[in-house]
Amino acid sequence: MIPENVPFLDKLDVDVMLSGGAKGADTAWGIAANNAGHQVVHWSFEGHKSFHPEFTYKLTQEELEEADEYLKEANKTLKRSLPYSKPWIMNLLRRNWYQVKYIDAIYAVGTLNKKAVIKDSSDGKCIQKNTKILWELTEAQLGPVICLWIDGTKTKKHMNRQ
Fold it and tell me: pLDDT per residue over 57-80, tens digit each?
C-alpha cells in the first residue's frame, strides 16, 4: 500500500490492518498481518516515532482534529476530560480514532468493566459506542477469550471461547 492513498481506505476491498504503530503489540500485529498478505497502516503524526516507516501514514493536523467530536463523545462515556493543554496526548488520542474509523472488527487489549467498556486503556477511548465486533484478551493472554458483540441496537452479548 502506498501511504499517500490511505485516506481512501473506505474505498478499498482488501484486508487492511490499522494500528497506532507503537512498539510492542502494534508492531507485532503489523508484522503478522503483513506476513499473512494483509496491507498494514500505522497511523502517526508529526514528531511521533514510527517503528515501521514503510507502513506509516502521517496524519496532518487537520486530519487529526477531525477526531475531536468523536473523542468528546467517548470521554462523556468514560467520564473523563480531554487533555487539550497537552497537544502530544491529544494527538495520540486523535490518532487512535483513525484506528477505528475504517474498521470492520476491533481487537483491543484491556479489561471490560460491568458496563462492557474497556477501562484504563487508550483502546477503550477509541472504541466507545462502536457497533463492531470486539475481542477482549485476558491479561495473561492464556485464558479464555471473551467475545463481546454490540449490535446496532446496542444489545450486548457475551460468548466464552476456549
Answer: 899 999 999 999 989 988 887 788
